[in-house]
Amino acid sequence: MSHEAVLHGDAHGHDDHGHHEHHDTFLTKYVFSQDHKMIAKQFLITGMVWAVLGGLMSVLFRLQLGYPDSTFPFLEDLLGKWGKGGRITPEAYYALVTTHGTVLVFFVLTAGLSGTFANFLIPLQVGARDMASPFMNMLSYWFFFAASIVMLSSMFVETGPFSGGWTAYPPLSALGDASPGSKTGMDLWIISMALFVVSSLLGGLNYIATILNMRTKGMSMTRLPLTIWALFFTAVLGVLSFPVLFSGFILLIFDRNFGTSFYLSDIFVNGVGALPNEGGSAILYQHLFWFLGHPEVYIILLPAMGMVSEILSINSRKPIFGYMAMIGSLFAIAILAFLVWAHHMFVTGLNPFLGSVFVLLTLLIAVPSAIKVFNWLTTLWRGNIRFTPAMLFAIGFVSLFISGGLTGIWLGNSALDIHLHDTYFVIAHFHIVMGVASMFGMFAGIYHWFPKMYGKQLNNTLGYIHFWVTIAGAYLIFWPMHYEGLAGMPRRYYDFSIWESFKQFGELNKFISLVSMIVFMVQLLFLFNFFYSIFKGRKLTKQNPWDATTLEWTAPINPGHGNWVGEIPEVHRWPYDYGKDGVDFIAQTTPVGADESQH
Amino acid sequence: MSTIATNEPQRIHPHRFIMWIAIGSIVMMFAGMTSAYIVKKNQGNWLAIELPVLFWYSTAVILASSVTIFLANTALKAGKTSFYKTLITITAILGVVFISMQWEGFKDLETRGIALIGPQSNSASSFLFVITGLHMLHVLGGVIALIVTFFRSFWVQEGQINLVPTQIVATYWHFVDVLWIYLFIFYQLIA
Ligand code: HEM
Ligand SMILES: [Cu+2]
Q: Which ligand sits nearest to residue A408's alpha carbon?
């Protein structure tokens, strides 16, 4: 025991050896906890609540898209005036799409994913008793919680939640008179997002500081598991890009409430007349938004990439192929993520020369992406594969990332994008590569680390059903959307049946809606498995159930605040010694033997 | 006081490190703002504004406050606690003076007929207001942190003051100073 850092919050005691000396109250243990493991669970469960709500919203608007001519009386019971006559109103449709996008992107796949696994894994895998600042970490969750409450309350205001799309482009977001959702709903949306940004920043600062400063003895940067590297780059992206979004929001607030003309100009509004504003530029907002927006998609993806790398290696009983290349490609992706934002703006009248620069930079991302894919495949190659549910989801991730990455290369060509922009092709692209793929990463992580989180086992059979239905369903839902998009079917339309050219997709849309309902049901099965197993699951008997090398499995089955009893273990090797010298696995804590071969 | 222990020798205190990353984050926010300013300016419809003279004086004030907080920390290290308290107080007062001078600068613009917000405003003046105002809020945050450190020096026993929080506040204070210098030069160059 040598150097000590003072922890915030003296109320929360644990001694140097990390076991509890005093009794936690319910409030300090489960609610205002400063234990990174409890905070991780808080993020996870809040994220799950949002995933269910957001998923339910998509089922509702798929009902409209699949059955535009039918009425469903239960909708009126559920939604009141928003489901008048058993049909979702156009206003409600847009509100549902917008809220679905916002909560899935930010609350589920950012807070729910990074918040859960960065909190849970960073201290446990780098060998620290807790985060650099447990107090800030607690605040990070409570800001997220406040953001959640505000977003939730926006569902219940008279004029409805914001309905201008998750990207919140002006003028719909800047002008209260533009649509019902642009009034109070938008005020609440922006407050909620501001709180969310603060939460992400507090979290990110801590993750970075913990990874760089709190590693245990022997844990050099090149001995870190790839999960940690991925979470590190994720946090860096967040800390550098969320503030820019925040700037964009500040200007938006001024346009909304103080009559400035950053984004608004003298456009004509039906029923209002010409606006008094002059010279504002809606495109300016798009630059600020996508400067965050593109890094944000990697904030969502990188944690999944990290966990998948880990899980593939463990369950192939082989070292990860190209450890340094994996770090290098993460680094390249993180850099490029800041240089490609304008590929979302090819049709905004962007200077074509500038457009071609962004085409080049965008297509460059394919290089590190391909490096990662090949390394995953070569890790699997001739492995001694254990098909656990976590492993299946990890393999599913690789499949989805390939499928969705390839369509990215289409979209990245500005000439093709003129046709494909704002069609279902884009919807298909980003749902496969980001939405579903990151969900798969998250599921893989949950199946893999559940035993560490709760000291229990999840039911495998339910896990297999969950996986097979979800992967089949994901492809059945999103694959056909490519064809719709190629045929020019635009996104964000309420009813396609009134166009001759899109009538051909009527049956297909019905099919997609049907599958999405089945997939939603299967997620409920997963939730049942999750919550049932927390209480009634088989108790974990092995401290290291997956025969893994990393540090978290050297901690007790249900670690207390402080993680290890006694000294924090010392690290002697990298985390991927699987099958070395004929030994199944060698833990990171095992000293290097005299006659051991080099890797 | 509970502690966390790490086996690895600490090169830099984790909390100080957090402050450095937070500074990076704030820099990105202002970089976003000033980039937006440039983009907007290049789109035309831009009012050339002469900065209020007061901004020159406020610049001098915030520079002076950086000197006083530096001296304060030196005093603290030397164990001269009462001198430290005086200097911290002076720094906080200079911060408040800076904020009020900026505010007066805004009023000066308005009396010259330049609307900062509202339908009559031009985005050049609105940007000036929003960016400068955002910086003022950061200085205000620093003043609050100074007040907290000031009172902390009473609670803690003489000679046992933990230097880390005061160093963190000083780092932040120097940062908002430099940030203002950047903004001030930026306004002069890209006006
Ligand atoms: C080789 C890799 C990729 C390329 C070249 C690429 C390219 C593009 C382009 C050009 C667009 C804009 C399409 C349009 O609106 O017209 C787009 C949209 C999008 N991409 Fe990708 N992408 C790639 C990978 C990814 C990854 C890995 C993610 C997420 C993890 C992602 C998430 C998104 C999202 C969320 C959108 C749509 C946002 C919206 O408009 O609502 N992409 N992509
Ligand atoms: Cu992008």
A: 1
Give B-chain residues touching A288 at CB under 8 angstroms: 32, 36
We report the CATH number of the domain holding residue A424 as 1.20.210.10
Sign of CA dihedral A224, A229, A231, A236: positive
Q: Ligand 1 centroid to A594 CA: how many Å?
A: 50
CA distance A295 to A29: 35
Domain that holds residue B167: 53-190
pLDDT tens track for A29-87:
778 889 999 999 999 999 999 999 999 999 999 999 999 989 999 999 888 889 988 99
A20 pLDDT exceeds 50?
no
Ligand 2 centroid, distance to A577 Cα (angstroms): 36
| Ligand 1 pocket residue status of A305, Cβ below 6 Å | no
Judge: A250–B130 Cβ closer than 8 Å, yes or no. yes
Instruction: Pick the atom of ligand 1 nearest to A166's CA.
Output: 41
A329-357 residue pLDDT tens = 999 999 999 999 999 999 998 888 999 99
CATH number at residue B73: 1.20.120.80
Q: Check A2 against B121: CB less than 8 A apart.
A: no
**Considering only A18-32, B78-92, B103-117, which range has the smallest mean pLDDT?**
A18-32
Say how far apart CA B166 and CA B147 lie, in whole Å: 11
Residue B31 lies in a domain: no
Which ligand places an atom closest to the C-alpha of A346? Answer: 1
**Is residue A77 in a domain?**
yes
Does this complex have an ipTM over 0.90? yes
The SS3 call for residue B24 is helix
- Amino acid identity for residue A258 in this structure: F
Q: Does A345 touch chain B (CB under 8 A)?
A: no
Alpha-carbon separation of residue A452 from A457, A588, A597 (angstroms): 9, 17, 31
Distance from CA of B29 to the nearest CA of A (A): 5
Residue A300 in contact with ligand 1 by CB distance below 6 A:
yes
A261 chain-B contacts, CB cut-off 8 A: 119, 121-123, 126
Residues spanned by the domain of A444: 33-264+277-585
Q: Concatenated DSSP letters for A498-544?
A: T-HHHHTTHHHHHHHHHHHHHHHHHHHHHHHHHHHHHHHSEEP--SS
Domain count, chain B: 1
Strands of A220-359 (E only): list them.
268-269, 273-274
Q: Which residues from chain A sit within 8 angstroms of residue B21, using beta carbons?
A: 204-205, 208-209, 239
pLDDT per residue over B131-146, tens digit each? 999 999 999 999 999 9
